[in-house]
Amino acid sequence: MATNKSPMDMVNQMTTGQKLVAAGGILMLIASFLPWYKISFSLAPGFSSSISRSGWQSPGALWSILAVLIAVIMAGVVLARLGNVNLPDLGSVTWGQAMLGAGAAVVILIIIKLANEASHLSFGFILGIIAAALLAGGGYLMYTEERSGQGFAR
């Protein structure tokens, strides 16, 4: 007879790196739908308006879309592994190395997006930066956890 694990049991068996990657991926996905840029303007006395753009929209949409997709894949890998899914062999690259590289890629993509347009930032972009930091930190921890023998490999 199979035993059902509660969500807390599943979270408790995750390493710190896995928790950071899962949280960062979920946060990045949520942030991607929030305003990343917002411009407010006044057309006449007493009449103002604003325009906002999400992470899926210009300016520099390609960079944030790629960052979101990598973030979701990273979180998906962690959550799949948590569900006892056997991950494929990556050849000469370990899963810890892949997570480290993917986390770094997300940070680089967010920096490129920021360099593309740094004015009129809104709270969605700030959450995206936080998510990128979580993913990079989690990827680094997963790499070091794997090297110390308590990690992700199988």
Structure keywords:
Butyryl-CoA Dehydrogenase, subunit A, domain 3; single chain; 154 residues; 2 strands; mainly alpha; elongated
Overview of this structure, please?
This protein has about 150 residues and is mainly α. The chain has a single domain, classed as Butyryl-CoA Dehydrogenase, subunit A, domain 3. The chain contains five helices and two strands. The chain has helices at about 5-10, 15-30, 60-80, 95-115, 125-145; strands spanning about 35-45, 45-55. The chain has a two-stranded antiparallel sheet with strand order 1-2. Helix 2 packs across helix 3 and helix 4 runs antiparallel to helix 5. It is elongated.
> What number is the mean pLDDT?
92
Tell me which oligomeric state these chains represent: single chain
Number of domains: 1
Query: Radius of gyration, rounded?
Result: 18 Å
Low-confidence stretches: none
Output the CATH class name: Mainly Alpha
Structural class: mainly alpha
**Binned strand content:** 5-15%
Count of individual beta strands: 2
Largest sheet: 2 strands, antiparallel
> With helices defined by DSSP (H or I, 4 residues minimum), what is the helix count?
5
Helix content: 55-70%
CATH architecture: Up-down Bundle
Strand order of the largest sheet: 1-2
CATH fold node name? Butyryl-CoA Dehydrogenase, subunit A, domain 3
Shape: elongated
Query: Distance between termini?
Result: 25 Å
Elements, N to C (H/E) = HHEEHHH
Helix and strand arrangement:
Layout: H1 7-12, H2 16-32, E1 35-44, E2 47-54, H3 61-82, H4 95-116, H5 123-147
Antiparallel strand pairs: 1-2
